[in-house]
Amino acid sequence: MSSDAVTATPAQGVPLTGTAAGGETEQARYGLGASLQPADALAKVQGTFPYAADLWAEGLLWAAVLRSPHPHARIVSIDTAPAAEMPGVRAVITHEDVPGDATHGRRVADRPAFARDTVRHYGEPIAAVAADHPDTARLAAAAIAVEYEVLEPVTDPEKAFEAEPVHPDGNLIRHIPLRYGDESATGEVVVEGLYRIGRQDPAPIGAEAALAVPRTDGGVEIYTASTDPHTDRDLAAACFGLRPEQVKVVVTGVPGAMADREDLSVQLPLGLLAMRTGCPVKLAAGREESFLGHAHRHPTLLRYRHHADSEGRLVKVEAQILLDAGAYADDSADALAAAVSFAAGPYVVPHAAIDGWAVRTNNPPSGHVRGEGAMQVCAAYEGQMDKLAARLGMDPVELRMRNVMATGDLLPTGQTVTCPAPVAELLRAVRQAPLPPLPADGADGAPGPEEWLLPGGPEGAGDPGAVRRGIGFALGMVHMLGAEGADEVSTATVKVDGPVATVMCAAVETGQGFSTLARQIVQEVLGVEEVHVVAVDTDQPPAGPGARGRHTWVSGGAVERAAKMVRTQLLQPLAAKFGMSTELLTIADGKITSYDGVLSTTVAEALEGKELWATAQCRPHPTEPLDDTGQGDAFVSLAFAAIRAVVDVDVELGTIRVVEMAVAQDVGRVLNPQQLRARIEAGVTQGVGAALTEHLRVSRGVVRHPDLTAYPLPTALDAPDIRIVKLVEERDVVAPFGAKSVSAVPVVVSPAAVAAAVRAATGRPVNRLPIRPQAAVANP
């Protein structure tokens, strides 16, 4: 069956005007610096934008996956006959029906498509069913008889070192022993702390869904919300026993993406079922299956010891960082590298001894979630800075100012910070920003309307007199692009046909705004207002995953280079006609003019009757792996942020309301003010969720209540007032456009800032995220 048989309501675009980050009307209609709206904005608002769950094909079958009810068990037998004999069931598959590689993985090939002999985590796929109705498929999956020999799960990562191996590859995935400076150095003042970070789920708005369509050449096409379609294709082809060119991944609309869009939780069973039945097969996961089918943020245990002199200058940082990877390796080695490298934060530290481990357990798998590794250590090192300030009797901001990093300083990995690092400027900005007013009483001293804003709201159990306001500060950093020698490369093609330009690049639009940015780049370089971005599939050259700001940098850079090549093709005939070089011609406001004004024409006139195109690649400068002592130039560039949190805490009940988050961020260059503000606000809100409510509860390896009732996400009522008080536009000279990653660093810093504010309000040593009510009750 061809892809032409797959139907959905097409997306529609609409030209809209926008506003800049500060709220003022943006003057530029298009190009870099304008608040150009996404082309799909109207379709998404109207509910006509097609996602994978909306797709349909002639002869469609429905799939369901049987998942393990145990976190650790030996599979004694699997009887699929009860399912296969049910009316309407077309196929039942298990590990025996995987024709290619038995295991897969983005970094380490250690995860089976279906459990073979051993179940290693709760919810692991055991079998899959295709039937003519979704209810039939679910009933058939439940009818499969699996006999288990239940084993004792390894759920404590500290015990994983001595426990029986969870996996044939062992329990230890990676150990990084970072050593920097003098290990014997000590400070006059020493503070210690133990910190625990919980298991945050990506909790996408739309759960996983996909459609697999068999091809006449024996291959398969998969329509899904992938963020890295070429890697998905290669892993799926290896599992299916096919050549990569026999598998095509077509990217549908992505309803939010982090770790959940990098798993093959639905693609593999669907592809196998489609090839087995010869029919299109679709699966739209429910919320429980979504929680069980994708990776989560690494739960982390952190032990810290900070040394400082009597003036508050850091002397040494010691840390032990333990990441719970769950059953499989996934991105854990990368997350550990970030955690160890940034364990001291954006501070100058002359000596460091930091050990990091990532271990397998029988807990749910962990993987890439925005700010992985960096978020966990930020909560810990900022807790240590607050503790050190209290020991020294210093203002927490002043202590930070004495130690902040700047361009030219060294990371504990020995790498020189060559990018702009305006950390002091960011901290000053949030410190000097006006504070929000305190709640005011109404007439005659009666409770005012602000009582709604107190923890618990009006008529709540709490006493407004027990509410204390706290103010906390935090600094943080993230790395951009891949690290430790990752080959970051992207390819883009720009084509101009008369007044219309088209961009083809396999960089997936996940909500980060790449499609809009690509349009703006072409508008800026070529002066063409109408620009279309082609839908992504694996027939295009690869662009890599959408994480760590890489599409702004690498894919945006490829689009810019291709557009500049087309620009040269456009200008060369004009320049030759007037005996000048193309460098003497400029394109602005849809016009081409020469330096002396002799030549002046419109872009539309110059393009009339022409078809120009060019393909280009962008590849940043290489990095290197960390060595045996954690040293090496592992990162391409860094981004920084400072956040001041203001919270109100009911110190009797432990309820918390985040009043305001003031943000100052190092952005390099503002490319789209409206999108930038949205990304920062989203990152802060996600960080507030990690600080207060988001924790996937797991008991002895079993996920408890995997639903959005027991996993409370911040709502519009929970989201604080987010004020962007400063955007530092100091361009990174090695990055295209000079721009930096925007959305990850607020996620990293926000939880630490909220924790600092709760500490200030209660006097309690908040050392666990999310913050539990008992930790927010003030000392008597």
Automatic annotation (TrEMBL):
Residues 1-22 are annotated as: Disordered. Residues 1-10 have a biased composition (Polar residues). InterPro entries: Ald_Oxase/Xan_DH_a/b, Ald_Oxase/Xan_DH_a/b_sf, Ald_Oxase/xanthine_DH-like, AldOxase/xan_DH_MoCoBD1, AldOxase/xan_DH_MoCoBD2, AldOxase/xan_DH_Mopterin-bd_sf. SUPFAM superfamilies: CO dehydrogenase molybdoprotein N-domain-like, Molybdenum cofactor-binding domain. Residues 46-152 form the Aldehyde oxidase/xanthine dehydrogenase a/b hammerhead domain. Pfam families: Ald_Xan_dh_C, MoCoBD_1, MoCoBD_2. This is Xanthine dehydrogenase family protein molybdopterin-binding subunit. It comes from Streptomyces chitinivorans.
